[in-house]
Design brief:
The chain is an alpha/beta fold. Helices cover 51% and strands 11% of the residues. The strands form 3 sheets. The chain has a 6-stranded mixed β-sheet with strand order 5-4-3-6-8-7, with helices on both faces.
Length: 328
């Protein structure tokens, strides 16, 4: 059996990347990842050397990879982990995030939803009727924004990679959701009540960030969130993976083509005609009197705690019924 060779040094390769039509050894894989992140940061004016950066950390490969890459590139970056109360999944993810920070002497801020706001994601989903991913996303976005503004950070970094962004773009395009398409950018500038948000991994795939973690010796949570079962986002990823397997580079062409050629045509749709007020409860920008996060807190914090299994069973039933409808 022939050992594949690194395209750069001709040494033994550790990974093949069909979209680059190349194999790479550990050293030159890291070089590739660093260059791709540097290019994303430069091309989209994401960060400056003096920025105080807050990284949204989950304990998974992408958030730990982007935090590690930023530290490698000389940026000052702290992490923020939110304990979502999703059973043992949350307990384990928090342990990975803390271990990563401790090993590298990095600052990790932790917020526990149950301790601080009186609810967790399973309870919020049951109490509000929202699907778990909706309650989760709303909570995380609000808390990342608040922590960044209150802590004096210049920018929030998330670990969204090329696969994530291409899948979201695919879903928004299937529905022709113009308002969401207009906001699907690698950078969202700071605005009144909102910090700047950036995605430095948009030029790297999930497989590439996983490989970065492996060659760097980063332990990360392998499991997907159990409450994401049936999420359409995962189905969109599977569909794009099938296209990518037959035509390597398709995802990058799809996403970056949109950013370069279509997104500028939608620029005037970003928050067009949206009038924002200050939330009567927390002061955050909102279209109504009270923001969605404070409404969730008001409803979920007074609800009896809901075990994660209850919501998982409900999600499984809904997924099964949806499959039966498709078959019939």
């Amino acid at each position: 059996m022939n050992q594949s060779k690194c395209r750069v040094c001709r040494g033994p390769a550790v990974i093949d990347l069909p979209r680059h039509n190349a194999n790479f050894c550990a050293e030159h894989l890291q070089q590739l990842c660093r260059r791709q992140v540097e290019k994303a940061i430069h091309d989209h004016d994401m960060l400056s050397p003096d920025d105080r950066i807050l990284v949204a950390v989950s304990g998974g490969k992408d958030s730990l990879a982007v935090w590690d890459l930023l530290a490698e590139l000389g940026y000052r970056a702290d992490g923020l982990y939110i304990g979502l109360g999703i059973g043992t999944y949350s307990d384990t993810s928090g342990q990975y995030a803390q271990a990563f920070a401790d090993e590298r002497e990095l600052e990790l801020i932790t917020i526990d939803l149950r301790e601080t706001y009186g609810y967790d994601i399973p309870t919020a989903s049951k109490a509000t009727g929202r699907v778990p991913c909706s309650a989760c996303g709303l909570s995380k976005r609000h808390l990342f924004d608040r922590a960044a503004l209150d802590g004096g950070y210049d920018v929030v970094v998330t670990g969204h990679n090329l696969d994530d962004e291409a899948a979201v773009l695919f879903g928004n395009t299937l529905r022709w959701d113009i308002d969401y398409l207009a906001r699907q950018l690698p950078v969202l500038p700071a605005a009144e009540g909102f910090p700047k948000k950036v995605k430095p991994l948009v030029r790297l795939t999930e497989r590439e960030t996983a490989a970065w973690c492996i060659v760097r010796g980063i332990d990360y949570l392998l499991d997907e969130c159990p409450m994401a079962h049936g999420n359409r986002h995962l189905a969109y990823k599977e569909a794009l993976n099938a296209v990518e397997a037959r035509s390597p580079g398709s995802k990058a062409a799809f996403y970056h083509g949109f950013i370069e050629r279509m997104a500028p045509l939608l620029a005037d749709r970003v928050d067009a005609g949206v009038e924002l007020h200050r939330c009567e409860s927390c002061g955050s920008p909102t279209t109504g009197d009270v923001c969605a996060f404070c409404r969730v807190v008001a409803t979920a914090s007074t609800h009896d705690p809901v075990p994660v299994e209850v919501v998982l069973n409900k999600a499984a039933r809904k997924a099964y019924l949806a499959q039966m409808q498709e078959i019939s």
